[in-house]
Specification:
Elements lengths: L1 E2 L5 E9 L4 H11 L5 E8 L5 H13 L3 E5 L3 H14 L3 E3 L2 H11 L15 H15 L13 E5 L5 H9 L5 E5 L8 H4 L5 E6 L2 H14 L11 H18 L3 E3 L5 H19 L1
Parallel strand pairs: 2-3, 2-4, 4-5, 6-7, 6-8, 8-9
Antiparallel strand pairs: 1-2
């Protein structure tokens, strides 16, 4: 383990998978995020299904020792990886083993032992693709009729509407978004919708102004306009909140929320609504 120029502890993590490695990457990053002052040097070896591919991964692991995380179905390949890691003194973690073993015991069923089984082209996969296409077609007030949406997000500019819709789409949720303009009038597209859940997104005026100023700077536009005026932005947000309250739409303050946290709250609202409809 070394230190980077910022004084952070730096270490190598080797992700070895017989599939795409997406699951490994997500688990690793979520785990490392629990530790402050560390930097990960990530090495990914995806679709490792032959002895030759494993040899390449093992050579890299030996060249830059660190922590090995893996999802390998083949017993022979797993044993080879574990034996090599033990030989060079590198910890190896089979991240899905405890989960699969527990589920197997609970269900009284053996696992399928198929590489990449979680990525089968099933109905859920096509549902996510359809939801992603929907989010793109119905971004920023486009796309017309919204009755096909699961949720419609409303908010003033820079309340993370688009990234939240894209994140929801990856969860199979058809999400559209409509920007609110000054004046506080309800967009005609959502005035009488019946099927989708309508959710209002808001944030503190200070946060909105900061994001908007950064956006203008990235476009080499430094003029002060109502778009970044403190009073004007505050009026925009007040008008939006009044609209949400008038229609009884749930509201989420995204000031201190990540996109993932906002999406999780929306998913909870969708599930609550489905529960009440039963």
């Amino acid at each position: 383990m070394t230190a980077n120029p910022n004084g952070q502890r730096q270490f190598h993590v080797h992700l070895v998978s017989d599939s795409t490695g997406e699951t490994l990457g997500e688990v690793m990053r979520a785990s490392v995020a629990q530790f402050e002052g560390v930097e990960v040097i990530e090495h990914l070896y995806a679709l490792v299904r032959s002895p030759r591919q494993m040899d390449r991964a093992l050579a890299e692991i030996e060249r830059a020792p660190g922590v090995v995380m893996y999802t390998i179905v083949s017993a022979a390949m797993r044993q080879r990886l574990e034996d090599h890691c033990q030989k060079i003194g590198t910890p190896a973690i089979a991240i899905l083993d405890p989960i699969i073993a527990t589920l197997s015991g609970f269900l009284a069923l053996p696992p399928s032992s198929r590489a990449g089984a979680q990525h089968d082209l099933d109905a859920q996969y096509y549902q996510r693709i359809e939801a992603l296409n929907y989010a793109i077609m119905h971004d920023d007030g486009q796309g017309g009729n919204l009755e096909g949406a699961d949720v419609v997000l409303l908010g003033v500019s820079r309340t993370s509407k688009t990234p939240t819709c894209i994140y929801l789409a990856h969860r199979g949720v058809k999400a559209a978004n409509i920007p609110l303009v000054r004046g506080g009038e309800t967009p005609a597209a959502v005035a009488n919708v019946r099927n989708p859940l309508v959710v209002g997104l808001t944030a503190s005026p200070e946060r909105i102004v900061q994001i908007r100023r950064n956006r203008l700077l990235s476009l080499n536009e430094g003029r002060d306009t109502d778009y970044v005026d403190d009073v004007s932005v505050k009026d925009e947000i007040i008008a939006a909140k009044r609209m949400f309250a008038r229609h009884g739409w749930p509201t989420i303050d995204v000031t201190r929320r990540s996109v993932e946290e906002t999406a999780a709250k929306i998913l909870n609202l969708i599930n609550e609504r489905k529960g009440k409809a039963r």
